[in-house]
C-alpha cells in the first residue's frame, strides 16, 4: 500500500461519520479540508467556511486535491 501523504476534501466533515473519517485521515498524516458548519477536528483540518451547497466553495476547496 502506498503511504503517500495526500490532501483530501471531506464534504460533511462536521457530521458524526465525517468527523471520524477526518480524524483518522489526519492521524495518518494526510492534509484534510472540510466543508461544513461546525469544526470538530481542529488538529488536522483546514476549515472551509460556508454552506456545502455553495459551488464556489467546492471549487476553491478542490485546489490541490487529486482524484
Structure, briefly:
28% of the residues lie in helices and 21% in strands. It has 67 residues and is α/β, with parallel strands linked by helices.
Can you tell me about this structure?
By secondary structure, the protein is α/β, with parallel strands linked by helices. The chain contains 2 helices and 3 strands; from the N terminus they run E-H-E-E-H. The protein has one domain (about 5-60). The protein has a 3-stranded parallel sheet with strand order 1-2-3. The radius of gyration is 11 Å and the shape is flat. The two termini are about 15 Å apart. The relative contact order is 0.24.
Mean pLDDT: 72
Describe the largest sheet: 3 strands, parallel
Query: Helix proportion of residues, in percent?
Result: 25-40%
Radius of gyration: 11 Å
Gap from first CA to last CA: 17 Å
Q: SS-based structural class?
A: alpha/beta
Query: What's the number of helices?
Result: 2
What string gives the helices and strands in order?
EHEEH
The stretches of 5 or more residues where confidence is low (pLDDT under 50) are none
Strand order of the largest sheet: 1-2-3
Number of domains: 1
How large is the share of residues in beta strands?
15-25%
Quaternary structure: single chain
User: Count of DSSP E strands?
Assistant: 3
How does the overall form come out from the CA principal axes?
flat
